[in-house]
Each structure stands twice: as structure tokens, then as C-alpha cells.
Amino acid sequence: MIATSILAGSLLLALGCGTDPSATVTTSAAPSQPVSHTVAPRDEPTGGVPKPTRPEGHTDNPRKVRWLTAKPSKDGRSLRIVWWSGVEPCTVLDRVTVRETSKRVTVTLWEGPSSKAQNVACIEIAIQKVTTVKLRKPLDGRKVVDGAKR
Length: 150
Description:
Helix content is 10%, strand content 40%. By secondary structure, the chain is mainly beta. The strands form 3 sheets. Strands 3-9-6-5 form a 4-stranded mixed β-sheet, with no helix packed on it. The radius of gyration is 20 Å and the shape is elongated.
């Protein structure tokens, strides 16, 4: 029984690090109890719903964070930004900076640990988050650029 559990866990770990990130892995902890996991790609949004997030400010040592997608609204006056993040209060959206020129819009996300949290333990798990930023002018064909990649 213990050997089967160790074997199943080792198989999941090995396959989770494989080359096909969308593979479904099925193992068996016991003959009558199948265990199934789907490994999602790390650089693409999943079919799940991202957690709506608003900038809170007041984080300690905020850093730039790369985002996955920036989808414009129908009228082009705002962008829906999706990115991978961590759990709160250890990872909080501090602010979003938007720099607009005639040719492009640069959006930079800033995250850090909440300055209000003290003596907190946080698990290391990825959470997909989303925020909406308003533009001064409609997008109108301008290129959207991730400020964290610069």
C-alpha cells in the first residue's frame, strides 16, 4: 500500500515535469481508487476564472510582474490584464502603471507582500488574477506592451 502511494506520487511528479504541459495523468493509489490530475501550461490562461483584483498599494518592496494577456474592451477604452500571482497577503497587487504614446500602451503590474501582514505563512501556489485598467484614449490600433519585460 505504501509502495503504491509512493510510486503514484513519483509518477505524478515525473510527469508533471514532462514536456507536454496539457497532458492528463491517471494513476491508481489502490486498484479501485483512480487518481487523475491535469497539468496546465504555465504561460497560458486556464479555462478557470481568474480572481478579480484591484491595486491595494502599501506593499513592501513592490516588483514588476509579467502579465499573460491584455484584452481590450469593445470600445477600446480599457484593458483586461490577466497574470499569474501568489496568495494574499504575501502577494498583493500594489499598483498598475500605464504609459500611453501615439504608437503603444505600456502596462506594468507591481506586486509585493502586504505591509499590513505580519507573522503570516503563505503557501507557494499560483493563482491567476485579473484587473482592468482604463486608458486615457481608446486603444485604436496601438500596440500593448508588458512593462515588466523591458
